[in-house]
Design brief:
It is a single chain. By secondary structure, the protein is an alpha+beta fold. It is 22% helix and 25% strand. The strands form two sheets. The chain has a four-stranded antiparallel beta sheet. The chain has a two-stranded antiparallel ribbon with strand order 1-4. The protein starts with 33 loop residues before the first strand and ends in an 11-residue tail after the last helix. Catalyzes the NADPH-dependent reduction of 7-cyano-7-deazaguanine (preQ0) to 7-aminomethyl-7-deazaguanine (preQ1). This is NADPH-dependent 7-cyano-7-deazaguanine reductase. Pathway: tRNA modification; tRNA-queuosine biosynthesis. Pfam families: QueF (PF14489).
Length: 166
Protein backbone atom coordinates (compact mmCIF):
# COMPACT_ATOMS: atom_id res chain seq x y z
CA UNK A 1 0.00 0.00 0.00
CA UNK A 2 1.39 3.40 -0.92
CA UNK A 3 0.90 6.64 0.95
CA UNK A 4 2.42 8.77 3.65
CA UNK A 5 4.28 6.92 6.39
CA UNK A 6 5.32 7.76 9.95
CA UNK A 7 8.77 8.86 8.85
CA UNK A 8 7.10 11.59 6.78
CA UNK A 9 5.74 13.51 9.75
CA UNK A 10 2.83 11.38 10.96
CA UNK A 11 4.59 10.22 14.11
CA UNK A 12 4.59 13.78 15.48
CA UNK A 13 0.82 14.31 15.22
CA UNK A 14 -1.06 14.19 18.52
CA UNK A 15 -4.57 15.35 17.56
CA UNK A 16 -5.58 13.52 14.40
CA UNK A 17 -7.37 10.29 15.34
CA UNK A 18 -7.32 11.19 19.04
CA UNK A 19 -10.77 10.44 20.51
CA UNK A 20 -9.97 12.39 23.70
CA UNK A 21 -9.42 15.78 22.06
CA UNK A 22 -9.54 18.68 24.47
CA UNK A 23 -11.10 21.90 23.17
CA UNK A 24 -9.44 25.07 24.38
CA UNK A 25 -11.76 28.00 24.97
CA UNK A 26 -8.85 30.42 25.11
CA UNK A 27 -6.44 31.41 22.35
CA UNK A 28 -4.10 28.43 21.90
CA UNK A 29 -1.48 28.71 19.13
CA UNK A 30 0.38 25.75 20.66
CA UNK A 31 -2.32 23.40 19.34
CA UNK A 32 -1.17 23.93 15.72
CA UNK A 33 0.68 20.99 14.17
CA UNK A 34 2.43 20.59 10.83
CA UNK A 35 3.56 17.69 8.68
CA UNK A 36 6.12 17.47 5.91
CA UNK A 37 5.09 18.73 2.48
CA UNK A 38 5.82 15.79 0.20
CA UNK A 39 5.37 17.98 -2.89
CA UNK A 40 7.70 20.89 -2.14
CA UNK A 41 9.13 20.60 -5.66
CA UNK A 42 6.09 22.50 -7.01
CA UNK A 43 3.93 25.48 -6.20
CA UNK A 44 0.33 24.77 -5.24
CA UNK A 45 -2.30 26.44 -3.10
CA UNK A 46 -3.84 24.94 0.01
CA UNK A 47 -7.15 26.63 0.82
CA UNK A 48 -9.28 26.45 3.95
CA UNK A 49 -12.76 27.94 4.32
CA UNK A 50 -13.86 28.11 7.94
CA UNK A 51 -17.48 29.36 8.07
CA UNK A 52 -17.91 29.00 11.85
CA UNK A 53 -15.17 31.29 13.18
CA UNK A 54 -16.08 33.24 16.30
CA UNK A 55 -14.26 35.68 18.55
CA UNK A 56 -15.29 38.37 21.01
CA UNK A 57 -15.23 42.15 20.80
CA UNK A 58 -12.51 43.24 23.23
CA UNK A 59 -14.68 46.03 24.67
CA UNK A 60 -18.29 44.82 24.64
CA UNK A 61 -17.52 41.08 24.76
CA UNK A 62 -20.26 40.54 22.17
CA UNK A 63 -19.61 37.65 19.80
CA UNK A 64 -18.30 38.26 16.29
CA UNK A 65 -18.94 35.68 13.58
CA UNK A 66 -16.98 35.22 10.38
CA UNK A 67 -15.99 32.96 7.56
CA UNK A 68 -12.23 32.76 7.68
CA UNK A 69 -10.48 32.06 4.37
CA UNK A 70 -6.88 30.86 4.56
CA UNK A 71 -4.86 30.22 1.40
CA UNK A 72 -1.17 29.44 1.25
CA UNK A 73 1.58 28.05 -0.95
CA UNK A 74 3.52 25.67 1.29
CA UNK A 75 7.26 25.24 1.37
CA UNK A 76 8.54 22.40 3.57
CA UNK A 77 5.50 22.02 5.87
CA UNK A 78 1.70 21.87 5.64
CA UNK A 79 -0.72 22.48 8.50
CA UNK A 80 -2.63 19.48 9.84
CA UNK A 81 -6.31 20.37 9.39
CA UNK A 82 -7.69 19.10 12.72
CA UNK A 83 -5.11 21.16 14.59
CA UNK A 84 -6.12 24.19 12.49
CA UNK A 85 -9.77 23.60 13.37
CA UNK A 86 -8.96 23.40 17.09
CA UNK A 87 -6.75 26.48 16.80
CA UNK A 88 -9.50 28.52 15.14
CA UNK A 89 -11.97 27.26 17.76
CA UNK A 90 -9.65 28.61 20.46
CA UNK A 91 -10.57 32.15 19.38
CA UNK A 92 -14.10 31.56 20.74
CA UNK A 93 -13.44 33.54 23.93
CA UNK A 94 -10.56 35.61 22.57
CA UNK A 95 -11.21 39.34 22.69
CA UNK A 96 -9.67 41.14 19.73
CA UNK A 97 -10.72 43.31 16.83
CA UNK A 98 -11.38 41.67 13.47
CA UNK A 99 -8.17 43.07 11.99
CA UNK A 100 -6.15 41.66 14.90
CA UNK A 101 -7.65 38.17 14.58
CA UNK A 102 -6.80 37.95 10.87
CA UNK A 103 -3.21 39.13 11.40
CA UNK A 104 -2.68 36.88 14.45
CA UNK A 105 -3.83 33.85 12.45
CA UNK A 106 -1.48 34.72 9.60
CA UNK A 107 1.46 35.35 11.97
CA UNK A 108 0.93 32.03 13.78
CA UNK A 109 0.78 30.12 10.49
CA UNK A 110 3.92 31.86 9.20
CA UNK A 111 5.72 30.88 12.41
CA UNK A 112 4.54 27.26 12.12
CA UNK A 113 4.95 26.70 8.38
CA UNK A 114 7.32 29.30 6.92
CA UNK A 115 5.17 29.22 3.75
CA UNK A 116 6.20 30.62 0.41
CA UNK A 117 3.01 32.70 0.34
CA UNK A 118 -0.07 33.08 2.58
CA UNK A 119 -3.22 35.18 2.74
CA UNK A 120 -5.95 35.31 5.36
CA UNK A 121 -9.33 36.93 4.83
CA UNK A 122 -11.97 37.31 7.52
CA UNK A 123 -15.49 37.98 6.25
CA UNK A 124 -17.28 39.04 9.42
CA UNK A 125 -21.05 39.25 9.58
CA UNK A 126 -22.45 42.74 10.00
CA UNK A 127 -23.01 44.04 13.50
CA UNK A 128 -24.45 47.50 14.07
CA UNK A 129 -25.14 47.83 10.35
CA UNK A 130 -21.54 47.42 9.17
CA UNK A 131 -19.36 44.49 8.18
CA UNK A 132 -15.59 44.44 8.45
CA UNK A 133 -13.64 42.15 6.14
CA UNK A 134 -9.89 42.41 6.85
CA UNK A 135 -7.49 40.79 4.40
CA UNK A 136 -3.76 40.34 4.86
CA UNK A 137 -1.01 38.50 3.03
CA UNK A 138 2.69 37.70 3.10
CA UNK A 139 5.27 36.50 0.59
CA UNK A 140 8.65 35.10 1.58
CA UNK A 141 11.12 38.01 1.45
CA UNK A 142 13.55 38.13 -1.46
CA UNK A 143 11.50 35.70 -3.58
CA UNK A 144 8.93 35.91 -6.35
CA UNK A 145 6.33 35.30 -3.62
CA UNK A 146 7.15 38.67 -2.06
CA UNK A 147 6.39 40.26 -5.43
CA UNK A 148 3.22 38.20 -5.67
CA UNK A 149 2.14 39.43 -2.23
CA UNK A 150 2.64 43.07 -3.26
CA UNK A 151 0.68 42.53 -6.48
CA UNK A 152 -2.20 40.73 -4.75
CA UNK A 153 -2.37 43.37 -2.03
CA UNK A 154 -2.64 46.16 -4.58
CA UNK A 155 -5.32 44.24 -6.52
CA UNK A 156 -7.16 42.33 -3.82
CA UNK A 157 -10.43 44.22 -4.17
CA UNK A 158 -10.86 44.67 -7.91
CA UNK A 159 -14.39 43.26 -7.67
CA UNK A 160 -15.95 45.03 -4.69
CA UNK A 161 -18.82 43.26 -3.01
CA UNK A 162 -22.41 44.24 -3.49
CA UNK A 163 -25.33 43.39 -1.25
CA UNK A 164 -26.27 40.41 -3.47
CA UNK A 165 -22.87 38.69 -3.70
CA UNK A 166 -21.93 38.48 -0.03
Amino acid sequence: MSGRNHEEGLKDLTLLGNQNTQYSFDYAPEVLEAVDNLHSNRDYFVKFNCPEFTSLCPLTHQPDFATMYISYIPDKKIVESKSLKLYLFSFRNHGDFHEDCVNIIMNDLIKLLDPRYIEVWGKFTPRGGISIDPWCNYGKPGTKYEEMAHHRLMNHDLNPEKIDNR
